[in-house]
Amino acid sequence: MKLSWLSSAALIAVAATVVRVAFFTPLELRQGAAQKIFYIHVPAAWVAFLAFGLVAVASAVFLWLRDPRLDRFAESSAEVGVVFTTVVLITGPIWAKPIWGTYWAWWDVRLVSTLFLWFIYVAYLVLRGAVDSPTLRARYSAVLGILGAFLIPFIHLSVYLFTTLHPQPIIGKASKPSLPAEMLWTFFLAFAAFTLLYVAFIVSRYRYAEERDAIASRPDLHA
Amino acid sequence: MPDTFFSYYLAYAAALGIYALYALSLYTRRKRLREKR
């Protein structure tokens, strides 16, 4: 198995993040080691929002231009976004248990709306698998891809609009980030590493879709 | 300071495991396509 330079760079960046988190980032006084989940949970949430936001943009432009490359990109970004959202939904409860005393709270709008976001894009992928006509598949999924992304600003604002267990942002806020420099640099490294991992996944997934479509258009390869 | 190392290790193992599985699934799917070609 030969890795592309992009995949290698993403792998090195993720490994560097894990090492920095483990050995060069101090423990937080009140939460202890559980706070280190922050460096994997928050970048995954950022990438999930980025991925689904780009699905919506690519889908909207697709409905206008009808370029199959945009549909392929949207399909790739939705699948990768589901992977990152899965990480958010698994690391979140593992972090919550020792800190909040519970894995999950069904009344918490941030938690439940993130789960809904995951369901919408899983449905997007199921829809793509269920429609045979490439034209209809691209059109239907583009509409769902756009509508699903409307949840993103709602999820972001949910911690301000409702009473939630989930804390408000400590970095993406109007005032200065409330983290010491060592933790902040680790966060920036994690942020860059997982964004790079997203790009590497997208490139690979897009190439797969391209090769699959090329085969589908060759009548001699149809079963 | 609470002893929360288990949660920390579990979360990293789960997250990195999911990313590794996805990378493997991408590799396998592309390999299968190339064989078909």
Quickly describe the structure.
With 223 residues, chain A is mainly alpha-helical.
Structural write-up:
The complex is a heterodimer of chains A (223) and B (37). Chain A is an all-alpha fold and 223 residues long. Helix content of chain A is 74%, strand content 0%. Chain A contains seven helices and no strands. Chain B has 37 residues and is mainly alpha-helical. Chain B has one helix at residues 5-36. The longest helix of chain B is centred in the middle third of the chain and has 32 residues, at 5-36. The mean pLDDT of chain B is 93. Chain A binds chain B through residues 1, 7, 14, 18, 21, 27, 29-34, 36-37, 40-41, 44, 80, 83, 86-87, 90-91, 94-95, 97-99, 197, 201, 204-205, 207-208, 211-212, 215, 221, and chain B through 1-5, 7-8, 10-12, 14-16, 18-19, 22-23, 26-27, 29-30, 33-34, 36-37.
Key phrases:
heterodimer, A: about 220 residues, mainly alpha, about 75% helix, about 0% strand, B: about 35 residues, 1 helix, rod-shaped
Secondary-structure element series of chain A: HHHHHHH
The dominant shape of chain B is: rod-shaped
Instruction: Tell me the helix content of chain A.
Output: over 70%
Shape of chain A: globular
Order of helices and strands of chain B: H
Q: Percent of residues of chain B in beta strands?
A: under 5%
What's the gyration radius of chain B in Å?
Answer: 17 Å
SS class of chain A: mainly alpha
Mean pLDDT of chain B: 93
Oligomer: heterodimer
Determine the strand fraction of chain A and express it as a percent band. Answer: under 5%
How much is the average pLDDT of chain A? Answer: 94
Q: Uncertain segments of chain A of ≥5 residues (pLDDT<50)?
A: none
The helix tally of chain A amounts to 7
Number of β-strand runs of chain B: 0
Instruction: Identify low-pLDDT runs of chain B.
Output: none
What's the number of helices of chain B?
A: 1
